[in-house]
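Long-time lurker, finally posting.

We've been working with FAD-binding FR-type domain-containing protein (Geoalkalibacter subterraneus) and I want a structural starting point before designing mutants. I don't trust myself to interpret raw outputs, so I'm hoping someone here can both generate the structure tokens and explain anything notable. Sequence follows.
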Amino acid sequence: TWDSCQFDQFTKVAGGDEFRGNQADRQRHRFFRKYKYLWDKYQRTACVGCGRCSRECLSRIDPVAVLNRLHQQQSLPAPKSSPAAEYRPELAEILYVESLTESEKLFRLRMPHPLEFEPGEFLEISVFGQGEAPFTIASAPERSDEIEVVVRAAGTLTQAMHRLRPGDTVGVRGPFGCGFPLERFNGRDLLVVAGGMGMITLRSLVLGLLARRDDYGRIMLLYGARTVDHYLFRDELLSWHREGNLDCRFAVTQGDNSWGVTRGDVTHLLKDLDLEPARVTALVSGPARMYRAVNPLLFRWGVGEDHLYLNLERHMKCGLGKCGKCRINDICVCESGPIFPYARVKHLKEAIER
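Top reply, 14 upvotes:
Generated this for you. Predicted structure of FAD-binding FR-type domain-containing protein:
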């Protein structure tokens, strides 16, 4: 009788309960049980090196290759302070609160110590008695003890945050994740494509690019939203546009269009771009439906898979890859991302389509 942990119902037991029904969960448990849990407890693995698992696996999964890949990635750096510090929130004081739209507010926090991060990394912020959630850092990627985040009032936690005022405190863990690798963009033209709240992540990116403006070629920002009133950081957008350090182009799908911008979604801004595709790196952040429309247009235009970066923020929870809430097959977004080159995730259709 042949069986495999990759088969559906592999963990189904009497009574109909299936305690590990997700294929990714079964695969993860297989490697953790054999190579991590036993090592942590007894300093040995459940492997004698016979090679049978590689030869007989019906799904042709080579454990040696998987383990080597996991070792090479080293997604999370070692804790910089005491053990388990990444689990303990630190208190941060709210210095400033600004309403950006009817539902989004910007919060400036003073941390107990300066933070270093890449654009795209995030913090876990908690309101005591209400819970914890991840929020992308919206401020410039420079060493500072003042950090900015944007919060949309959507649930119990975020509504509680909207009621906070300067002088109040919140719990903060992080920063976590992997952001945009700015050093890889040196000398290239950059096409920054934002949709809706995707501008939160890209604001940090743009501020980082402008701080080292001479390192890059042309920078073009395409930003689409429902209405002009839904644009985030409106004063900064106008300032960037007027200063001329980057080419800003805007679109709206609804509303009175008081800015006189393109009518339609952000894909309308991809027409007649005066950039050379071979020199372009595209940096995209927005809802999944935007990716389904934008990515094919970029590829058709000539952007290479290695030069397209996507922001795959999910409904993350712990920020440490423990809860599995943001797992997409073999990728845990909060550990390996949320910023990915397209070539890294192109095999995960649900990463873009969901």
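Before you design anything, note these points.
The mean pLDDT is 88.
The chain has three domains: 1-74, 85-176, 182-353.
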